[in-house]
Every structure is written in C-alpha cells, then in structure tokens.
Amino acid sequence: LALDNSLREALQNREFNLVFQPLICNVKGQPKVQGAEALIRWTSPVLGQVSPVEFIPHTEQSGLIIPIGRWVLEQACQQAKRWVDDGQEDVFISVNVSPRQFKGNDLLRDLTSALESSGLHPHHLNIEVTEGLLIEASPELNNTLQLITDMGINLSMDDFGTGYSSLNYLKKFPFNNLKIDRSFIKELPDNSDSAILVTATIAMAHQLGLSVTAEGIETAEQYNYLRGLRCDRLQGFYMGKPVPANEFSFELAP
Ligand code: G
Ligand code: G
Ligand code: MN
Ligand code: NA
Fold first, then answer.
1. What residue's CA is closest to ligand 2, atom 18?
2. Strand partners of residue 126
3. Domains along the chain?
4. What is the DSSP letter of 211?
5. pLDDT above 90 (res 181)
6. pTM
7. Long-range contacts of 223-228 (CB under 8 A, 24+ apart)
8. Where does the record place the EAL domain (predicted)?
9. Which residues does 146 contact at the CB level (< 8 Å), separation at least 6?
10. What's the distance, Cα to Cα, between the start and end of the chain in Å?
11. How many angstroms is it from 128 CA to the middle of ligand 3?
C-alpha cells in the first residue's frame, strides 16, 4: 500500500509532530490546567494532514506503531520534563498507547527508556488504553499493566462506554483513571439518559477508587455540569484544543 510506504518514511523524515490538549483538574473552587494529552499529527508531503484515525490503524497492521509509539513516548516525556523544569511541579502528560504495543516486550522497555532519557519522574506520566485492549484479557496483559503501575506510571481507561465496557475490567485491572467517552458528554446536560449514565459512572468509578476524566466538553453548560458532578478532570475544545507545545498555556482559557 502507498500509505504504508509513506508512513515508513515519515518517522525518519520528521513528518510527525505532537500536539497537546489541556487537562483541567477540577479542584474545589479553583480549577486549573494540570496536564495535557499528547496527540500525534502527520503532515505528509504528498497527502497533507492525515488524521490519526486514518493512519494509526495502518501502523497497527504493519507493526510501524512500535517505532512510532516509541517516538511518541520519547517526545511526550521530553515535553513534560520541560514543563516540570519550568516550574509545573504537578504536571502530567497523558499518552495514548495502542493495543498492538502491548504485544511482545517492547512497551516496558520503551517506557523505561523514555523516562530515563528524558529524566521525567514516572508519576508525571499517564498511559491511556482503550477498552479494546481488554477483550483479549490474559494473565500476561494483567501482568504488564501491573508492572507499568508498579513503575509509578498512571493508567487511564480511554473511551469508556463505547466498547465492551465491563465493570469487571475496572476491578480486575490496575487502572487509576477512567475517561468517559465524548459521545456521553455531547448531549449533556439536557439529555436525561446521558445525565443518568454519566452521573452513575462517576459515582461508580469513585467508589472503585478511580478518578474520572470527561472528554469532549464543548460548552460552558457541560463544563459547569461536570464540575458539579465532581468529575476530577475535564477536557474538551471549550477549555482548549490540541496545540503545539509552543502554543500551550497553563492559564485556564474560559
Ligand atoms: O487527536 P485526534 O482526535 O485526531 O485523535 C484521533 C484518534 O487517534 C484518537 O482515538 C486518539 O486516541 C488516537 N491517537 C492520537 N494520537 C495517538 C498516539 O500517539 N498513539 C495512538 N495509539 N493513538 C493516538
Ligand atoms: O480517543 P481519544 O480520547 O484519545 O481521542 C482524542 C481526540 O479527541 C483528540 O484527537 C481530540 O482532537 C479529540 N477531542 C478532544 N476534545 C474534543 C472535543 O471537545 N470535541 C470533539 N469533537 N473532539 C475532541
Ligand atoms: Mn485518549
Ligand atoms: Na476518547
């Protein structure tokens, strides 16, 4: 495939970059930007901007996600270290890791090496995995997730509610944080089904000892509603779009 060939050259030709979307910590009375989700972007000389929705699946198929994922981890950790050095002592960086990266032994090595080479303390690093990873739940997978947690890295379950959400997973695996998928946030606060689901999910997660992130917040109403529900972290275009590091601000926009 032409796309695969282009992707193969993209890494060495420096066609990828990371953008960072603010994650707002819902501290009582005083919300603040505490971290960022790192998101990959690809500018191909031939195709222009290609969304990760299109190219990540190809890299998972071909295995290119391994070196690309390694690059993402390195870049994300280096950026977080710069923020720490600039005085953002509590900052965290959240990185998407695809299921394919859990096959084999590369991930633990890549995590270790990204942390070591950047000098970033592991508690500044958060890994996001989708529910899809857990379909093939196995003792090895549980072991890997536990080792990541033991390293001091935090674990989020991304896109919660879209796939094979099972409360069982949340108990069985060592997650610290649950990200409610934006499809549930979209119709807040007026849609009563969404309101009930989101309210119950937050309560349940808190009882299981997990913090909750709401993603896809696009309006002031959604923002205020979720703050009222004691949702721990807030993310969405209303507070900030993904931007390159030099445009990222720790000032809360709205
Ligand atoms: O940022 P955007 O909305 O374009 O992201 C689209 C999808 O691509 C999301 O599901 C997101 O999790 C995924 N994605 C973005 N960056 C990365 C990355 O660095 N690694 C992986 N595995 N997925 C990513
Ligand atoms: O699957 P994941 O949660 O990793 O997806 C992250 C993607 O969600 C990012 O690419 C980002 O562009 C997108 N995103 C972030 N905030 C919003 C939002 O408020 N609205 C919409 N529609 N997309 C968002
Ligand atoms: Mn994510
Ligand atoms: Na998501």
1. 216
2. 94, 154
3. 2-247 (3.20.20.450)
4. E
5. yes
6. 0.96
7. 223/254, 225/188, 225/189, 225/195, 226/26, 226/185, 226/188, 226/198, 227/26, 227/31
8. 1-254
9. 174
10. 44
11. 6
Minimum CA distance residue for ligand 2 atom 16: 236
C-beta of residue 160 within 8 angstroms of C-beta of residue 131:
yes
What's the confidence (pLDDT) of residue 253? Answer: 79
User: How does pLDDT run across 211-245, given as a tens digit for each residue?
Assistant: 999 999 999 999 999 999 999 999 999 999 999 99
Residue 216, ligand 2, Cβ within 6 A: yes
Two tokens, residue 252:
């809360």
Q: Show the tokens assigned to 82.
A: 């710069």
User: Which tokens in the block code for residue 105?
Assistant: 């032994």
Pocket mutation for ligand 2, best pick of 18, 21, 98, 243 (most atoms within 8 Å of C-beta): 21
Nearest CA to 205 out of 225, 223, 230, 182 is that of 230
Range of lowest pLDDT (39-43, 52-56, 159-163): 159-163
